[in-house]
Amino acid sequence: MEVISNGVRFNCVVEGPEGAPWVTLAHALANNLTLWDEIAASLSDRFRVLRYDQRGHGKSQAPRGAYSFPLLIEDVLGIWEALGVEQSHWIGLSIGGMIGYGLGIHHPERLKTIIACDSRPDAPRDYAAYFQSRIDKAREKGMEGVVESTIERWFTPESLEKNLPVLDRVREMIRTTNPVGHEGCCEALKTLAYGPHLHCITVPTLILGGEKDKGAPPAALAKAASKIPTSKHVVIPDAGHISALENPTAVMAAIEDWLSRHP
Hints:
The protein is of the alpha/beta class and 263 residues long. The protein contains eleven helices and eight strands. Strands 1-2-4-3-5-6-7-8 form an eight-stranded mixed beta sheet, sandwiched between helices.
């Protein structure tokens, strides 16, 4: 379905019984809502599951210009308003989880819980520089030019050696991402700065991430979790940055356990 929020057309999918608690799923940079296909299917018997393509991704509109986390959060609030969502569990991966941190800090009344997957809260200088390099490479070579370097950064050497089928699934998501939306979100990621405010989050928060994640390593996520009073940190074995696809069994088990504890 198409939803208008913040003057932008968003592609959304809603599944599950009406009246059930809402769960909102937010994908990573250069991904789209199909990232969550399996997890949405597992949750939709008990939850009203909302997935959306972020601005500039999937089938959503791609406005030009630099995006920001306040803008991405306003997108979510507008989608929720259009669909009548008063409160929701939040599950986000990478930039999706970062949006969850922002919602927890600024709009806690709209959240039941937060599950942030492979989502660091800050952008130190080298991290911000990485996203500038993505912008530069995509401008020069198009999205195809960032596919293989991204796959190598996101997945473990073991998965690369086995050439798991999921790698081609992610390759296709990357190459079909609108370069305007990719650049806009990269600009937002360069400004990521939620670390000093994590202590303000009072919503129950699960932070999980791959044990071999290069962008959001376990030590960084453990430090983030230590700042949130109601948080728990879980390391996902045999996974890199896209843990929900590289080790979906472990990620789903952590999600199921968390949601069962916070109905």
